[in-house]
User: Fold Sodium channel protein type 4 subunit alpha B from Dissostichus eleginoides.
Amino acid sequence: MMQDGAAAAPVGSEIFRRFQPDSPEKIQRRHEAKEEEQQRRKEKNIEVAEEDLPKPASDLEAGKPLPFIYGDPPPEFLNTPLEELDPFYQSEQTFIVLGKGNTIFRFNAEPACYLLSPCSRLRIAAIRILIHSYPFLFIMVTILANCAFMTLSNPPAWSKIVEYVFTFIYTFEATVKVFSRGFCMGKFTFLKDPWNWLDFMVISMAYLTEFVDLGNVSVLRTFRVLRALKTITTIVGALMQSVKKLGDVMILTVFCLSVFALIGLQLFMGNLRQKCVLIPPQFINHTSDIGQGYDVNDTNVNNTGSGFDYHEYINNPGTVGSGQLDALLCGNSSDAGVCPEGYVCLKAGRNPNYGYTSYDSFGWAFLSLFRLMTQDFWENLFQLTLRAAGKTYMVFFVVVIFLGSFYLINLILAVVAMAYAEQNEATRAENQKKEDEYQQILDLLRTRRRSRQPVGQRSQRNRIQRRTHQR
Assistant:
């Protein structure tokens, strides 16, 4: 079905009207009439289906080229405020400007900063600077140059002056945007665009750091390069749609990881702290007495009364693990790791990998299971756990790897692939819909053109067409 705005659009330059000083009053009257119509429907309990509600025309969105049905606007209508073409926005305080390539730019029709009306020369000049391609390229080059200066380990003495130049350029760019769009009140203003939030924060921090020491916040300027992503909004939109569809999969993934983390917590709690400790000379013949009656975590007990500091001994790298980064793990089960001769298996010291690998709490167990699922150096965790707990628990790791790494990860990838496929299908359907609408419009124009021709010319043309078919 054709959109009303596209089907009823006249052809030629009569569709383009300059935005005049009295245009806001016309927009206000249309807005009031629209509200009265809605109030009348509400009083009569007339409900309108959501799909029948007026929506912005997809062909007339900001950033898109002007549809060909409108023709090429006269040169005097380029880079100047025009009244809205989209019927949806004709009752809103907005106007459009056609830039290079007939690209549509939409602005707020209310006075920018309560001072600059759409007909103001200063605002028109700011709009022309904003929509021109050269200033955008200049800003991108400035951002890249700023990033290059940030890579200098020993910046020269005049680098502070360069910083002021960069700040001035960014401030000028933001000022142009505010003068052309307004600051924050109304639609299509400066802060209504999330891409401008980072610019505002960077500029604010640049001036604030001149008076208050906030550290090196200039690194935020590098993120301004991300504005180039604005030109690939289709890909960004597809990515956001895929993230929305991942909700159920993420809940399932977190639930499975939580269950496995609880199992790991019950099976392996404290096992990774079991280490091979060198037997002290005075206990060489009484290894069962080492640590007997002493809690290795009790800091109030430091010696046995014979001058032997137990805690200092078991925390000495020379006695635990033979000076290695992580001590050799061991276990008490029959299939666990066994200490070499001259060492005894004790629970002491921290967990492996600087204490980051353990099952001693739900959080650490969850992190370990997440590491298994993503297969991030998982073989180290696998070997440490089997040596401390026993080879029997290999079954646990087989289940986690198959269900977590192979099933859940592939399920996430499948959802992302489906989201991209749906996005592509929606894009193709939208393009096909546009082609059908344009074909209907062309057929309508041909019908109008034929109806305007004299009867004699139409009959003569029909006779020529019949003769052509007979041949």
Remarks:
- Strands lie at 94-98, 104-108, 274-278, 343-347.
- Residues 1-13, 291-305 have pLDDT under 50 and may be disordered.
